[in-house]
Design goal:
A hairpin with a 6-residue loop joins strand 1 and strand 2. This protein folds into three domains: 229 residues, no CATH class; 120 residues, no CATH class; 159 residues, serine acetyltransferase, domain 1. It is built from 26 helices and six strands. It has a two-stranded antiparallel ribbon. A two-stranded antiparallel sheet has the order 3-4. The protein has a two-stranded antiparallel sheet with strand order 5-6. The protein is mainly alpha-helical. 39% of the residues are buried.
Length: 586
């Protein structure tokens, strides 16, 4: 089959079958130090910017940059003492040093686990048998150990058994191991391309045919979700994933105005456009259902057009997914590494080299392809090192720029000719916002004398509420705050945020008795003359301007007694928590 497609499935699968017969190993070149790699990317960036007669935005202030670095690497705003140490650090390599420290923290591993849980199984949805807790724990351990990305992908895609034994099976359990669903999800996450629409019709613009979609789905036709039974009582306890010895996927003909029929996987054959009663190999078993004899197309997982007289290999159930994963995670498959680099770059820069991030195609408009190629090659040569990739990106000049709403030279953010000359202001994700509110209000960690389980339950409830109000599809990136009335009401009147900033209301006082902290913790050890400065540092990660300090200090000092002064400071704290600056990464 000599056909190119949006995903180049037909072409790249020729490489896939070449891999199965063995490849010649080559010595992997040693990648340069991250600082050298970042310098080369800066050279490529400036080369393009100079040729386009455009200038990059000014550098972000040190305090704004450090806040951004903490949010992007740890998923939470920094502590004031960390900011103070960074600002007073005179080392030339201090960004690399602090990046290394952030990347080694448990917070980073937890944040990455959160990101990839959303990417792989979504923020929402609880399919029967899904164990999000075990999946998150498994991901966290892998990111803490800096497991190579290709190994992590293999473990996810080859997972089998029960979640308690192999937590990675939650990926398949989330989609109930449905071949069509798995084909679309795997293509999006690990190839960076969208093929789902070809399930119902040939792609209207790109050359993605239904045969190609169902051929890819055939790799998962023998992956089955099953119930695990209690041997003593015979009751179903939980779900697992296993491979069965038979089962194919059948693509019925498409009729105008009708969706395709979902046929049980009971046909076996290679991909042919032929009558049902013809077979170049073994005869195809007739269905035991009462299905009418239609002119069906049998989809075999190899996805190649067999020539007359050609020998066709029949891959067994145990090798089907292994062969797919061997190809998918191979260096020969450029989409695997490129799509990951594009995804990570987009998280840090607000947009990818290709947008949307999971829409690579032959006709994709790639921003700065030389930078994408360089980062991809470095990522592969480093052994798919995720921490190294992130460090390189934060060391680049593109990441150090000031975040602005407009772009120098009149270039509109998001357009194809945007050359990463600035970083868009990005809203905090719901979970990041919850953690940052906790940190900014001194409520991050429960006191030993309190019921830690109750505090954890409360925080989880708050996270669910924030996700419900602010949550977005994990495959999309937002560059503007898309607030709604409900979101604003939640921020100003919600139980979570209002209980974090103490005021003169009785229920705040009762809350403080139950969970001591808040303003007393935030201002502990700070002299009154610096209370306003401390509130800015703990909330916005910077000192107030002269005008801000004057206005807020005047408001606080106008109080006639200590109680009213505390209330005035709480008002200031409350205003800062609800400011656009706190709600965004800039």
């Amino acid at each position: 089959m000599n056909r190119t497609s949006k995903t180049k499935l037909a072409g790249i699968l020729v490489v896939f079958f070449g891999l199965l017969s063995g490849t010649v190993s080559q010595a992997t070149p040693k990648p340069p130090e991250p600082e050298q790699a970042a310098a080369e990317i800066n050279r490529l960036l400036h080369e393009v910017w100079s040729g386009a007669f455009t200038n990059a935005a000014p550098r972000a202030s040190e305090s704004a940059f450090f806040r951004r670095l903490s949010i992007d690497l740890r998923g939470v705003i920094p502590y004031p003492d960390e900011l103070d140490q960074f600002l007073n650090d005179r080392a030339r390599n201090k960004v690399g040093k602090w990046s290394d420290w952030f990347l080694q923290t448990p917070d980073h591993a937890e944040f990455q686990a959160e990101i990839w849980e959303h990417t792989l199984i979504g923020r929402k949805g609880n399919t029967d048998g899904l164990d999000r807790g075990s999946f998150r724990t498994w991901l966290r351990k892998n990111f803490l150990a800096n497991t190579p990305y290709n190994k992590l992908a293999r473990e996810v895609l080859l997972s089998a058994g029960l979640p308690e034994n192999d937590p990675a099976v939650n990926f398949y359990l989330r989609y109930e191991a449905k071949p069509e669903d798995m084909a679309g999800k795997v293509a999006r996450v690990f190839l960076g391309t969208r093929i789902e629409c070809a399930q119902c019709h040939d792609h209207p613009y790109a050359d993605v045919k239904r045969e190609e979609f169902f051929g890819f789905a055939a790799f998962f036709a023998r992956t089955q979700r099953y119930r695990d039974y209690d041997r003593a009582g015979g009751n179903s306890r939980r779900y697992g994933i296993r491979s069965r010895s038979s089962g194919e996927i059948t693509m019925p003909p498409m009729k105008k105005g009708h969706r395709p029929m979902k046929i049980p996987p009971m046909y076996f054959g290679v991909r042919y456009d032929r009558p049902e009663n013809y077979s170049p190999l073994d005869p195809i078993a007739k269905p035991k259902t009462g299905a009418s004899k239609l002119d069906k197309k049998k989809m075999e997982s190899k996805m190649m057009m067999a020539r007359k007289g050609a020998k066709v290999t029949n891959y067994g159930a145990s090798s089907r997914r292994k062969n797919l994963v061997k190809w998918l995670t191979s260096e020969k498959n450029k989409y695997f590494a490129r799509s990951l680099v594009n995804r990570v770059w987009a998280r840090f820069l607000g947009k990818g080299f290709v947008n949307p991030i999971d829409d690579f195609s032959e006709d994709s408009k790639i921003i700065l392809p030389a930078v994408l190629d360089y980062l991809t090659r470095d990522f592969v040569d480093s052994g798919y090192d995720l921490k190294r990739l992130q460090k390189i990106i934060v060391l680049t000049g593109a990441y150090r720029q000031q975040a602005v709403q407009g772009v120098p030279g009149g270039i509109v953010p998001g357009e194809e000719h945007d050359l990463f000359t600035t970083i868009p202001i990005r809203p905090l994700e719901p979970e990041v916002l919850v953690r940052s509110v906790l940190r900014a209000t001194g409520m991050e960690d429960p006191h030993p004398e309190n019921n830690a389980r109750q505090v954890k339950s409360y925080v989880q409830k708050a996270e669910r509420e924030f996700v419900r109000r602010f949550g977005v599809d994990e495959t999309e990136k937002r560059t503007e705050f898309q607030g709604t009335v409900l979101q604003v009401l939640l921020l100003f009147n919600g139980e979570f945020t209002s209980s974090k900033a103490p005021a003169s209301r009785p229920y705040h006082a009762s809350y403080q008795k139950k969970y001591p902290g808040n303003l007393d913790v935030v201002l502990h050890g700070i002299v009154p003359s610096r209370h306003v400065d401390q509130l800015f540092l703990v909330t916005l990660g910077r000192l107030p301007s002269a005008a801000e300090r004057s206005a807020f200090s005047r408001h606080a000092m106008s109080a006639r007694d200590d109680a009213k002064r505390q209330s005035a400071l709480a008002d200031i704290h409350w205003a800062l928590l609800n400011s656009a600056e706190f709600l965004h990464s800039s």
